[in-house]
Amino acid sequence: MLNWQSEGGVLSLVWNGRTLLTSSAERPFVTAVKREKTYTASRGTVKTEVTETARVPLTNAREEGGAMLFSDGEHVVAVRAWERAGGATLHLKGEDGWAYEFCLPADEDEAVFGGGEQYRKVNLRGEQVVNFVSEHIKASTIVEKALLPRALYREKKHSEIGSYAPMPVFVTDRRRLILFDTTADGRSDFTAEDRFSFAFDACPESLTLLHGESYEELSRLLTLLYPNRQYIPGWCHEGMILSIQGGTQTVLDKCFAMLDAGAKISGVWSQDWSGEKRTVMGKQVNWNWEVDEALYPELRGAIEKLSGKRAG
Question: What pTM does this model have?
Fold first, then answer.
């Protein structure tokens, strides 16, 4: 059962005895923020500058027309909560031109995982995670690591490290899942001891909060949200998937060498099939989604050869 409960000045959304979210005057569930944001980019690394001009905690809440309305008297965010397997999905409706911050309760020692492709840590507790595609390899870091003595090198904050594949989807070791459906730039903040905070440049379409008895159950519940193959295809179990790049002949030579040595291969992943760019950072992929005929001549024929060997 999913319902809103109010006690002692605290509003809670409760599902089957589990508190999904809370809101109070001291710690509102949602805050509206007016801000200006500028972006600068250099070699794939994106930096932002933010100027905040207004902050409106939405501390009042009332039910109206099947929705819970969070407001400060004028600014309103409508939240419609729908029960689903494992918890609830909250459909959110804010105002155009405003950014929004959302606050969820958390245990002090609750570990957090996910956020898309990460390069530094598995447990994200104590970190800030950006929801923006950016180059994760930075020249300054490489130079500092190469030239500075170990004692003087400062480990980079997680927020200073970009990601090719960010996504505001997280699971915790309390077996709960937090998923924002949004296309907006944002930041997830796991630095506080008793709460998680999520900020986006526009109001997300929805927030899904789920609980499961295991990570496997959470995966099944997530699959219900986005129907796809619930199990990886059988051929994936027939051998390793090799990551090889460098051109058609290089891929074929290395793959056949592995096969001749008795390795079982179910697939080959060559990310530079669309070409490469040489920069001061090294070799980077040219993301134009067209086959580089110079680097990968007769690629289709090579794929057929590998498929004939049960590697493709």
Answer: 0.73
